[in-house]
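Hi R.,

Here's the input for the D-gluconic acid complex you asked about:
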Amino acid sequence: MLGFFFVSGIIQPMIRFPSDFLWGAATSAHQVEGNNTGSDWWKWEQSGGGKEPSAAACGHYEKFRQDFDLVRSLGHTCHRLSVEWSRIQPAENEFSDQAIAHYKDVISSLRERHIEPVVTLHHFTNPQWFSDKGGWSHPDAVKLFCAYVDRVIDALAGNVTYWVTINEPLIYLFYSHIAGDWPPNKRSLIQAVAVRKNLIRSHIAAYRLIHAAYKKRSLAPPRVSIAHHMPAYVACTCTIRNRAAVWLRNRLVNYNILDILSRHKTLDYIGVNYYSRTLVDAESWSIPDLLFRSCCRNHETLAKNSMGWEVYPQGIYEVLMKLRKYRLPVFILENGICTGDDRLRWEYIRRHLLKVHEAIQCGIRVIGYTYWSLMDNFEWDKGFDPRFGLIGIDYRTGSRTIRESARNYSAVCATSQLE
Ligand code: GCO
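And here is the predicted structure with D-gluconic acid in place:
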């Protein structure tokens, strides 16, 4: 998978990815669609939560066809998006035919453009009615989520193969129920334990439900997973305590949930979201230090994104290599950078892809990569400042601009090759 090509007298090595590798970019409903009025995030934003309200966001709910034309023109072969629970089920006993028809159109539009959809069922936002009932800590949470999943599958089964049940369950758990920064803004370890259990059970139940539905309809088996946030944990100094903390965080954050889900045989692939490293610096043997303390000093002068996360491509290789034991294909569902410097964006993508390729060479079966994100969007409590997009958005006019990084990435998508 290593070739050569000739540029101005210099022979450049050229790396090749598998020819059926899926190339694309990712979004989530609340971050791009706009006016997601039935969700708990919307309500929280209206009451002053976060930096600014999501409002019309990118207007993608209306402009999806135009956006998918851009996706097509960039040569992407897949696209990750989420369907919005609060639109599909605006009240506990009500499903919206209109919203279901909308998402059917969205998926058909991708198919018409020969783009493989990768569909997330839960990406951080909940219907307000679900939240009012107690949300993910409610004893019926699994049943309630599955009723929604059932409707979505009924509508989209024939047109979708790749499903993501829940995006970053542990990130949701942490920010919504431990740190309390995101709705429902709870800080309760007891509740967090219940939420974790329900998120895991919901994935397992949804996995089984989706597989059963495909079987019943005699469809080719779906591929179902979660999108799992996996940082590279690196000891800031090589003390026994820091190494113990790295081991512990890897166990608890990176592997525990994968171990559980793979033991239940409910992962058809592993969905990985990788952005950066965490420099682990435990000043004492206390649990908060071991689990959460990270170093803020500058060890190396690594480039950073506009939110301060270090660019650390080696980490994606380390994370991928440690997935070998699961013997499952891996789909990189998020990897990206928010920056005002588009050359750094392309450098980020290129250097991470080189590392992904290295992992493939070492035997890890990576089947696809979706850059986060297709377009600039609403970065949750940070608002619209962070610019992750391959496509720039002018929020005043709604106009889209294809960035140079998107064009460079497009060449990789078209050829499955990288210089
Ligand atoms: C997440 C989400 C995305 C974010 C992205 C950048 O991982 O938090 O899946 O919604 O926007 O990761 O922070």
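One thing worth noting: Confidence is low (pLDDT under 50) at residues 4-9.

Cheers,
M.
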